[in-house]
Structure of Probable membrane transporter protein:
Amino acid sequence: MELILFFLLGALISVLSGFFGIGGGFILTPLLMLLGLAPIEAIATSLLFTIGSSSSGIIGHIKLKNIHWKAGVIIGVSGIVATQIAHPFVVFLDAYQLDEWAIPAMYIVLLSFFSVQMFKKKSAQQVTNHEVQPSILKMVLIGLFAGFVSTSLGVGGGFIIVPMSIAFLGMLPKKAVGTSLFAVLFIVSAGFLSYAFTVEINYFMGIFLLAGGLIGSQFGARSTDVFDNKEITTLLAFLYLTTILSVALKAFEQNVFGLIIVILYLLYFFTVLGKRHITHWREEKGYS
């Protein structure tokens, strides 16, 4: 029964992964910590899950032509370099028992910054109908930052890559989502390998999370086609705020309330998603 629940959890999170281009790890890691896993084990498990969910989501975004291949490779390779710096940092935190507060604190600071950025009028004004040519230097810097954070926090790095690609590379949100998933695959693969031989991982849990993830990512990627760019940005900003609250509550040992907040957001998101798909289907069939 527990493994079935992990399968369903993987499917739900991977829908968000395919829709937002975030890999899913930045939601899964705090959830696994809320469920009782040690931070370093939660990080390694999340990276394993993100490999599968990103791979599946990429397939969906290829069909929608949402991937900027050059940017994805540059960001991804830069991220791989940074993962090798981040792994010793996390091992240091774990050895001195600093991970229980340091990792949640890093989450809260980063997510707070990006949620504010997504809500700012300046960011919203950049959601236009055209793109600019991304700067190679900016792509490298984004990759280095995302790679370090990815391995430090057990996330794909997409929750950094997507808003930074929109704000600093001039990408449209839908293109930023697809490109992010492609770059994330490079980063999490390297990050997971750095943990695989040093951390005890529950592979049964990981496999069931992964199996659910392969299903959900495809649906999430296709769902971006029935939303406009501004709507995707707004939904992502609210997701960041939800995760901030859940991690903060975990820090104060209020795990139940943290889970409730995450569940409420998921109910809201999937209600909006379901309604939009029904409306889209009715329009295609010519129903009023």
